[in-house]
Amino acid sequence: MYIDTHAHFDLCLENRDITEEELLSEMENSSTAFAVQISIDVKGLRWSYDFALKHRDRGILFSLGIHPSSRATEVDLETLASVTEEVMVAGDTGLLFGIGETGLDYYRMHQPVHMQQHSFEYQIGLAKRHGLPVIIHSREAMDDTISILKRLKPEKGIMHCFPGDSAAAAKILDLGMYISFAGNLTYKNAHELHDAARYVPLDRILLETDAPFLTPVPFRGKKNRPHYVSHTYKFLAELRGETLSSIEDAVHRNFLAVCGAK
């Protein structure tokens, strides 16, 4: 059984070259039992919630959050808090995987640093208020990301699409975070990621696609799909010298542990 802990179904469907049913059928046919629809902006909050409600019996969970590259005014953040409260009151917390993705992105710099940092801090506070994990994006901003996490101390979190080596992984693990690897782990020259994936203990690893981005080998060059996560599982097992079943079991346990934060 495979689990994709981070995907963007809305973006996969954006160009209408595949349908919801096709994406979900691909998951089922490949033994991908769960996938998490990750929100990245205000307009996607309601879509993500509705998508999970519609497909809850097919293993779809969702997150609520604003990506560091997305606008995050006070009104936007208040909308995020309002939708989160709505989910909690409705009793749909079993579908809400966490708050995010949020964090810092100094590579693209689509939003000013002060807005990114304020949004990140606000969303950590929201996650803590509701006892939810925080789903973290960090690109070219690891020092500031770690500084904010150390100061605000979220109860539980996931460093999604981990971008560093074993030294960076150690700093994230010291904060009590889980580390999630995406399809770029399978790339031949991703030596630092390989180093980190060997280093991180099995009880702290999650796997994801970040679909439609970061398509794993052997489909690199095509749009990513949630069911392609199986190839990252297989690569990780070979990289670590573990059985595939041991990787599947570990990710499943860790996934349940994160869900248990609710």
Structure notes:
The structure is a single chain. Helix content is 45%, strand content 16%. The protein has 262 residues and is an alpha/beta fold. The chain has an eight-stranded parallel β-sheet. The chain is globular and about 45 Å long.
Record keyword descriptors for this entry.
single chain; 262 residues; alpha/beta; TIM Barrel; eight-stranded parallel sheet; 10 helices; 16% strand
Topology (elements, then pairings):
Elements: E1 2-7, H1 9-12, H2 20-29, E2 32-37, H3 42-54, E3 60-64, H4 74-90, E4 96-105, H5 113-130, E5 134-139, H6 142-152, E6 157-159, H7 166-174, E7 178-181, H8 191-199, E8 205-207, H9 229-240, H10 244-259
Parallel strand pairs: 1-2, 2-3, 3-4, 4-5, 5-6, 6-7, 7-8
Helix pairs in contact: 3-4, 7-8, 9-10
Order of helices and strands: EHHEHEHEHEHEHEHEHH
Helix amount, in percent? 40-55%
Shape-level CATH architecture: Alpha-Beta Barrel
- The total domain count is 1
The CATH superfamily title = Metal-dependent hydrolases
Outline the low-pLDDT stretches.
Answer: none
> On the 0-100 scale, what is the average pLDDT?
97
**CATH uppermost class:** Alpha Beta
What is the molecular shape? globular
Task: Briefly characterize the structure.
The protein has 262 residues and is α/β, with parallel strands linked by helices.
